[in-house]
Amino acid sequence: MSLAAEMTVILQLPTRSLYQGQAAGLTAVAPTGAFGMLPNHIDFVTAIVPSVVTLRLLDGSEAFFGLDEGMLVKKGHNVTIAALRGVQGDALDSLQETVEASFIQMDEEERQARSALSRLEANMVRRFAELERPIP
């Protein structure tokens, strides 16, 4: 593996890609604690706990992401993070508000989906019960 000044970072959610681009470094939080990673870091895999992932971009700026639990895989100069939920924030101080608003909305949508699924299951069970009734 050659030495590099940048790495490709992909932040993937179940339904979409949250970020894909080049970075000079990142910080994240694993179950064992916070860590930093540069492009020439050794390859590894770790779980990610709900926290803030910070990317140091090539122009020197930083990008902040509030992520739910997930996995980070570093192979070569590529880092892929797969998380259940996530949002990008403009600044670290406003990220908490963005995360709360987004996750509350996602929780409500999940609650509505579970409710609809329960109604669908109950309707299916009722129809199967009707099939077993003798025809008069």
From TrEMBL:
Organism in which the protein naturally occurs: Pelagimonas varians
Record's subunit section: F-type ATPases have 2 components, CF(1) - the catalytic core - and CF(0) - the membrane proton channel. CF(1) has five subunits: alpha(3), beta(3), gamma(1), delta(1), epsilon(1). CF(0) has three main subunits: a, b and c.
The record's CDD domains line, in alphabetical order, gives: F1-ATPase_delta
Q: What does this protein do?
A: Produces ATP from ADP in the presence of a proton gradient across the membrane.
Q: Which GO terms describe its cellular component?
A: endomembrane system; plasma membrane; proton-transporting ATP synthase complex
**Entry's SUPFAM superfamilies?**
Epsilon subunit of F1F0-ATP synthase N-terminal domain
Q: How does it sit in the membrane?
A: Peripheral membrane protein
Identify its protein family.
Belongs to the ATPase epsilon chain family.
List the HAMAP family.
ATP_synth_epsil_bac (MF_00530)
Return the Pfam families for the record: ATP-synt_DE_N
Domain (ATP synthase F1 complex delta/epsilon subunit N-terminal): residue spans on this chain: 7-83
Compartments in which it is found: Cell membrane; Endomembrane system
Chief location: membrane
* Gene Ontology molecular function, alphabetical: ATP binding; proton-transporting ATP synthase activity, rotational mechanism
| Superkingdom, taxonomy of origin | Bacteria
Under what name is this protein listed? ATP synthase epsilon chain
The region annotated as signal peptide is: none
Keyword annotations from UniProtKB, A to Z: ATP synthesis, Cell membrane, CF(1), Hydrogen ion transport, Ion transport, Membrane, Transport
InterPro entries the UniProt entry points to: Alt_ATP_synth_F1_esu, ATP_synth_F1_dsu/esu, ATP_synth_F1_dsu/esu_N, ATPsynth_dsu/esu_N
